[in-house]
Amino acid sequence: MQPDTANIRKKHRFFATIYTLGCGFRSILPRGDIRRIVLFDSWISSVVIGRSVATIAELSFVAQWALILYEAGKNTGNKTIQLLAKLPVPIIIIAEIFSWYACITTNYIGTAIEESLWAIAALLTVYGFYLARAYYEKAQRTFLTLAMFCGIGYVLYMVLVDVPAYISNWLAAESVGKTYATITDGFREVCTQWTLTHAYADWQYEMIWMTLYFSVAVWGSIYLMNAPTLDKNLVKKDDL
Predict the structure, then answer these.
(1) 204 CB contacts (<8 Å, ≥6 apart)?
(2) Average pLDDT for residues 83-94, to the nearest whole number?
(3) Stretch 33-39: mean pLDDT, rounded?
(4) Taking Cα atoms as reference points, which of 92, 119, 101 lies closest to residue 47?
(5) E strand map for the chain
């Protein structure tokens, strides 16, 4: 492994560690942010703590997407891939702002926008993998192909299941004229208010995405730091 690539993989290990620990925390102490529901009646289950952990973890995960694209762009010399590597993190920073807005105000439109931005970031990353694939052979090409299929599956889930679910919740709230919390009152609520529930109906939807998120996504994060390095098995390279 070349020194530059080794340095990139060390960063992967750092971000994968944060993401894995963050997801571990959230899987043990799950909560429903907008509905203020928790599985354990404790301050550590509060929305403000869970959302803070989630923000750090999710930014770490998307940083790994950017690192893979950066590694591919650097080694292939493809300027488009290099540009794409700069986009996922800023997009998800904006997504996290909308997530906090949704949590604080209880307005599902914030979550719908957040998840849409995640889908856009994933789609751009998949496009970067597609461009990079033509430069490689053997294990590197296989890895990029697998990453493309995983990314496409994620985008389809977000577009066909996740985003429509949150839009439906928003429309339902709008139809009954729901009054949303102000930023000040809402922030106080996420710090101090939560409802304990073990009812299956309350956790039914969370069970679906949490099961996938805290397993497949975490395994993916760990795998990225051990994926085939993109400084080998190049079949061509653009002039830098």
Answers:
(1) none
(2) 97
(3) 91
(4) 101
(5) 31-32, 37-38, 195-196
